[in-house]
Structure formats: C-alpha cells, structure tokens
Amino acid sequence: MYNGGAISWRSSQQSITALSTSEAEYMALSDAAKEARSLLKLNVSLDNNSPNNIKLFEDNRGCEKWTRTLSEPNRTKHIDIAYHHIRDWVKLGKLSIVPVATDLQLADAMTKPLPRHQHDFLLEKYCGGTSAF
After folding, report:
1. Residue pair 32/88 in contact by the 8 Å Cβ criterion
2. Is 58 helix (H, G, I), strand (E, B) or coil?
3. Where in the sequence is the domain holding 55, given as residue range(s)?
4. DSSP letter at 14?
5. Same structural domain for residues 84 and 51?
C-alpha cells in the first residue's frame, strides 16, 4: 500500500511444496520481500525524503519468528537458503515484519474464500467501500 492504495499485488500457486503452513508463509514472505526491496528502491529514487524501511504484515507467528532467528533451528534446516535473505534485511533494519491478527490481514480478502461478512469487513478496511459483486 502507498498513500492508501495498493501498488503491488500478486496471487499465485507456490512453485515448491512446503511441509507446514509456517514454511509456506515464510516462502511467500520471502517473495514479498524481494518485491518490497524493488519498490523501496523506486520510492527512494522518486523521493529523497522517503523512509528507508518497508513494512510487511505477517499473520503467522512461526514465520514471523523465523525472520528474526539467525540460527538454524531444526524446523528450518531443509528450507533453501535462497529464502533466508529476508533475515539479513530485517537485521539491517531495511525491512520490518509487523505481526497482524489473522482476521485483520487485508490480503485475505483477495486470496482466500471468506464468509461474506469477513470479506466485506476487510474490503471496508482496504478501500472504504463494499464489494460491487
């Protein structure tokens, strides 16, 4: 989101099989972090006074914890090192992983089947209106 509007959004099937929900979230967060880094570079080139940090909202506590853990716990040994770049960016302060309650995760409105009331609630938070569908 930038100035209240979505500037980047993607939904796709993961190209690799994850062994747990936290692992799937970590891989998706890693991809989001790559996109965020590109957007941060663009933002800095357009506005020299722009913040030097980008926030990613994550609703999976295990995934969020893995971004701060620099040691290799037994549960993440098998995850390809290509996904762990996110740890370096968090450590450098270029990226902040912000915990968010699952029922407040705005992306769910566009990526998951939800009960109508939850979809409308998230849509209201996202764009200030209800679905036209």
Report:
1. no
2. strand
3. 21-100
4. -
5. yes
